[in-house]
């Protein structure tokens, strides 16, 4: 997957900009608050279907304007395509593939695949379970479009079931039969989603082990396990898995009424992340946790490559400065055979990779008039972490 260009119009601080990318390493650099991350946002919106940082996509629309646009030209298995998005104050967001409007956002997800790595991802090991679930959901959605539909249905049914659980005793009794219908549907969706997530985590575990072993010369062995309401044996058949979730939903009704919420199901899933047999949340150093986060992101790229037979585009938002010298070296020596777009305050120098430099000032691609080639990240001192 290669992105050739990105055109932004009234998109945050980009008035009307076209940015061209090389198929190797691209460094978008410039001072703070100039619009570097805005460009990644304009690209990644096609991988995820929404902004990775806006609370509402409408925040993207340039102050004083009513519509924002982003359009990318990309090559997927050597075939040229375009994706466009129109974000309007007064209408729902519209996506276009090769100029044709997509009926739903879900229809374009998976078309353009990218792995985004930004500083907030470095906390994935110690953050709340919802961050790890989100990691799974974003990664799987790009590979399996049906997963988006399953999740959307699950969230709808869950919201309806929770609304009934929150009702007064009298009101709830009138909807008792609806609870049973929702429980059956949730049990079925739980089984489908858990199966997909478990398979993804199996691959994630394999690749994180491989990558982590390279990073630490085999000294540390990570392990990632999928944690859900069902046990390992329940995965033997879909029927058994569905029954397990159904039992969890029906046997805990009184407790659920007390809490006014559905207490069991894939919305409570987590990833157990260990190093050398110990829970990384409690025993890993901050440096080890960051290495795990990096390995998980690199693994996301490997799984995507395995299933689609080409690498996704790697978008690294200001993340290299957050990594110590060894991890930076690992990243730098493993990005040669794919397209990478990196944002940084400095024009990072890569010894072994052909690099395309893009200087951004006030939301515009400009010529960098000051002589500035320092520093060389490959020669940097470590930051003393670990
Ligand atoms: N809707 C908007 N309309 C116009 N400008 C906006 C809008 N939203 C954000 N901005 C501006 O975009 C700029 C931030 O852009 P961005 O986050 O891409 O910066 P950056 O170059 O990545 O900075 P840093 O190096 O600090 O990460 C800020 O100047 C902000 O005021
Ligand atoms: Mg930024």
What does this structure look like?
The protein is an alpha/beta fold and 386 residues long. It has 2 domains: 1-113 and 312-386, Rossmann fold; 122-309, RecF/RecN/SMC, N-terminal domain (Glutathione S-transferase Yfyf (Class Pi), Chain A, domain 2), CATH 1.20.1050. It is built from 10 helices and 15 strands. The chain has helices at 36-48, 129-143, 145-165, 169-174, 176-215, 238-251, 253-259, 280-283, 286-308, 325-333; strands at residues 2-11, 14-20, 25-29, 67-76, 79-88, 94-97, 100-101, 114-117, 222-227, 270-275, 278-279, 313-317, 340-344, 355-361, 364-366. The strands form 3 sheets. It has a 6-stranded antiparallel sheet, covered by helices on one side. It has a 6-stranded mixed sheet with strand order 8-12-13-3-14-15, with helices on both faces. A 3-stranded antiparallel sheet has the order 9-10-11. A hairpin with a 2-residue loop joins β1 (2-11) and β2 (14-20). α3 (145-165) packs across α5 and α5 packs across α6. The longest helix is centred in the middle third of the chain and has 40 residues, at 176-215. The two termini are 35 Å apart. Residues 378-386 have low confidence and may be disordered. The structure holds adenosine-5'-triphosphate and magnesium ion (MG). Magnesium ion (MG) binds next to α1.
């Amino acid at each position: 997957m290669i992105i050739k260009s990105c055109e932004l119009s009234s998109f945050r601080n980009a008035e009307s900009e076209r940015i061209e990318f090389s198929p190797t390493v691209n460094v978008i650099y410039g001072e703070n608050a100039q619009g570097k991350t805005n460009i990644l946002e304009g690209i990644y919106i096609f991988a995820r279907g929404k902004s990775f940082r806006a609370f509402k996509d409408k925040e993207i629309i340039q102050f004083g304007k009513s519509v924002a646009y982003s359009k990318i030209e990309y090559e997927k298995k050597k075939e040229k395509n375009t994706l466009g998005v129109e974000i309007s104050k007064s209408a729902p967001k519209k996506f276009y593939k090769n100029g044709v409007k997509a009926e739903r956002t879900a229809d374009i997800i998976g078309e353009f695949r990218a792995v985004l790595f930004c500083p907030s991802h470095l906390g994935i090991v110690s953050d709340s379970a919802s961050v790890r679930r989100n990691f799974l959901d974003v990664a799987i959605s790009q590979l399996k479009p049906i997963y988006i539909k399953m999740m959307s249905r699950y969230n709808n049914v869950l919201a309806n079931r929770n609304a009934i659980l929150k009702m007064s005793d009298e009101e709830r009794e009138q909807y008792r039969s609806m609870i049973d219908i929702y429980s059956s549907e949730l049990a079925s969706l739980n089984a489908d989603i858990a199966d997909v997530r478990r398979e993804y985590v199996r691959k994630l575990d394999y690749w994180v082990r491989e990558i982590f072993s390279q990073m630490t010369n085999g000294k540390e062995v990570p392990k990632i396990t999928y944690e859900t309401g069902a046990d390992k044996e329940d995965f033997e058949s879909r029927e058994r898995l569905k029954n397990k979730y159904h039992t969890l939903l029906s046997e805990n009704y009184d407790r659920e009424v007390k809490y006014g919420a559905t207490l069991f199901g894939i919305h409570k899933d987590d990833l157990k992340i260990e190093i050398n047999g110990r829970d990384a949340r409690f025993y890993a150093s901050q440096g080890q946790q960051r290495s795990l986060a990096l390995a998980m992101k690199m693994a996301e790229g490997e799984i995507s490559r395995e299933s689609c037979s080409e690498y996704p585009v790697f978008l690294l938002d200001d993340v290299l400065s957050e990594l110590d010298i060894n991890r930076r070296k690992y990243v730098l020596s493993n990005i040669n055979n794919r397209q990478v777009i990196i944002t940084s305050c400095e024009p990072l120098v890569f010894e072994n990779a052909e690099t395309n430099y893009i200087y951004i000032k006030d939301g515009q691609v400009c010529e960098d008039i000051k002589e500035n080639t320092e520093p060389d990240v490959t020669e940097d001192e470590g930051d003393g972490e670990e």
